[in-house]
Amino acid sequence: MDTRAIGVFDSGLGGLTAVKQLHRLAPQENVVFFGDTARVPYGTRPAQTIVRYALEDLSFLLTFDIKLIIAACGTVSSTLPRRYTEALPVPFVDVIGPTARAAAAATANGKIGVLGTPATIRSGSFVRELESIDSRLAVTAQACPLFVPLVENGYTARDCEVTRLVAREYLEPLMQAGVDTIILGCTHYPIIKGVIADIVGEKVTLIDSGRETARYALELLNKSDSCGGEGKLDFYTSDQGDGFENSAELFLGYSLGAGARKADLQRIDLHPCFGLAGGNP
Amino acid sequence: MDTRAIGVFDSGLGGLTAVKQLHRLAPQENVVFFGDTARVPYGTRPAQTIVRYALEDLSFLLTFDIKLIIAACGTVSSTLPRRYTEALPVPFVDVIGPTARAAAAATANGKIGVLGTPATIRSGSFVRELESIDSRLAVTAQACPLFVPLVENGYTARDCEVTRLVAREYLEPLMQAGVDTIILGCTHYPIIKGVIADIVGEKVTLIDSGRETARYALELLNKSDSCGGEGKLDFYTSDQGDGFENSAELFLGYSLGAGARKADLQRIDLHPCFGLAGGNP
Predict the structure, then answer these.
(1) Exposed, middle or buried: residue B268 (CB in 10 Å: 0-12, 13-18, 19+)?
(2) Chain B closest CA to A206's CA: distance in Å?
(3) What one-character DSSP code corresponds to residue B254?
């Protein structure tokens, strides 16, 4: 038994969809969540900027007593070079592997669609992972630059005409390709699952990357007999967290009754494991 | 004559609309532009985060030999407390005053609309300024949270259905109020002027905040006989500036033929004029 917390981070609050799943499947686990709300979104930024931000996020989580880190962010998972995640002093789980495996298991016709931020799609991460699982899979990837701003600004209702119009544009190539399974490769996207489902129809399976990743992380902890805790949830954001409760409710699906504390990333030193003396990557 | 540069900054690249105007009206002026592309957008963030970012932006510009600073950003102009701008060692011009005066001069029926980011509208900056110019003005203000993401992601064509739909939603209250003049209170908005004009009709005057502010800054310099320079334009962004040329062309309206240099705001010390020993405001 290991009662240290699971550390979860995301560019914004989308990663709370992974926290929701962790807490549902293993309510005893302690979780420290960090959302970089002061710099969201990541997915439309250059890779170098994303890497710099991710190393700071990881360094912040490493100031806590944690047993595992989840990057609940498709953009970070797709962009952060393995040399950094392999240097971490605790196990690291990103969304790519667990989500790709769930999609490969779910498809009947071998045609899979991937929705992600521009940085995620540009990286080719999901396509590579799916092809390594089964080279016969036909994958259609589509960048969705407006989905995060739409979700962050509350354009989330199932009948929201703006979001429907944007989603139709993004989903068109996937429908043309005849996919029967779609990876929601960004933890914001499950919030507009209803809009997406209405366009693609009930027969297409939607794979929630936050959910699959949380499930896989718990499997890992179970295998090494490292589960346990007091069910304590701690939330940190990089701006002062006004309105956090409302946004958190959107992603968690229930009222939290507690705010987020402010993480000061301003002057944080990069963790020594990255071998970078406080400088830029 | 004073050949030092004019410093211009913005949360992203929207402020280039002010640089465009500066260069058109006074091609001899040297300009140093800084766009905080690694943290754009500001307008949907809490005030405290915006102030912190703005002080870092100002501190960066103050590392150059400049004679005047323009905040070519409606959000910063609306959010930064006067005690900081009054502490600056050089004159400071923001978009609020020049833009409000131009709108007050343009209206015939006394009904003015203001479009801005959520932070700008929440601050009440334009409404207060307009009322101080003429208390009989009737002002209708509307936050437009999706305009910056739409522009930054290229949804700028005059016939773009998504942008038209979003713009119709934002403009409806202004049309209901019968405004004959609309302040484009964010330097990104002139890029979708065509979409806005198509909805509100030709009889409504659109006031471009970047243009009015550039014009006013040059008036100030003229008055104090501080014009002059070699027409040198220097561009800095906070991420590595890939794709800067394409984006710059969108805002400047012409090809630049030069990239942007990277400004490292990571470890910048706040300028001593702010009286803050490197800490947070």
Answers:
(1) middle
(2) 24
(3) S
Contact, B187 vs B96, CB < 8 A? no
> A92-125 pLDDT, tens per residue?
999 999 999 999 999 999 999 999 999 999 999 9
8 A C-beta contact, residue A61 and residue A9: yes
Residue B130 CA to its chain's centroid (Å): 18
Residues β-bridged to residue A214: none
A46 vs B44, B240, B264: nearest CB = B240
Domain ranges of chain B: 5-94+211-274, 96-209
Q: Of the candidates A169, A243, A42, which has an alpha carbon nearest to the alpha carbon of residue B47?
A: A243
Query: What distance in Å separates residue A107's CA from the closest CA in chain B?
Result: 32
CB contact, 8 Å: A135 with chain B? no
Residue B191 to residues A163, A256, B17, B49, Cα–Cα distance (Å): 22, 40, 9, 26
pLDDT in tens, A166-214: 999 999 999 999 999 999 999 999 999 999 999 999 999 999 999 999 9
Q: How many CB pairs under 8 A join A and B?
A: 65
Percentage of chain B beyond pLDDT 90 is: 85
Note the CATH architecture for domain B5-94+211-274.
3-Layer(aba) Sandwich (3.40)
Q: Is B48 close to A239, i.e. CB distance below 8 A?
A: yes
